[in-house]
């Protein structure tokens, strides 16, 4: 198994695959270009930055929190506490899927039954 390269390296890989530059990503996300450059250089991303980058990259913010190795905020956490066991690997693997595979996975996920949140999950996902 290879070592996790870090969020900056994963973000650089995504930008390369999408033929997107840091300046363009910053503009799409409403961020300062220096903020994006800092993350690409290895600085840890903050919550707000991840929330802004996600739609600019076509992701859900929770996916970027997981890729960054940060605890998922309660408002984004799944309702099923058992999901935390397999979620990190699922997201990391899903990023590597071709577009058709990601669409198929998303269809399956969206077809699963939903429940109302009864309480705050209060957990850290990626330790």
Ends distance: 17 Å
Helix-strand string: HHHHHHH
Which fold name fills CATH's third level, the topology? 434 Repressor (Amino-terminal Domain)
Q: Strand-residue fraction?
A: under 5%
- Average pLDDT score: 84
* Record field, number of beta strands: 0
Please explain how this structure is put together:
This protein has a single domain (7-111), classed as 434 Repressor (Amino-terminal Domain). It is 56% helix and 0% strand. It is built from 7 helices and no strands. The radius of gyration is 15 Å and the shape is globular.
Key traits:
single chain, 127 residues, mainly alpha, 434 Repressor (Amino-terminal Domain), 7 helices, 56% helix, 0% strand, disordered C terminus
Write the layout of secondary structure elements.
Blueprint: H1 7-17, H2 22-29, H3 33-40, H4 47-57, H5 61-67, H6 83-95, H7 99-111
Q: What's the quick description here?
A:
With 127 residues, this protein is mostly helical.
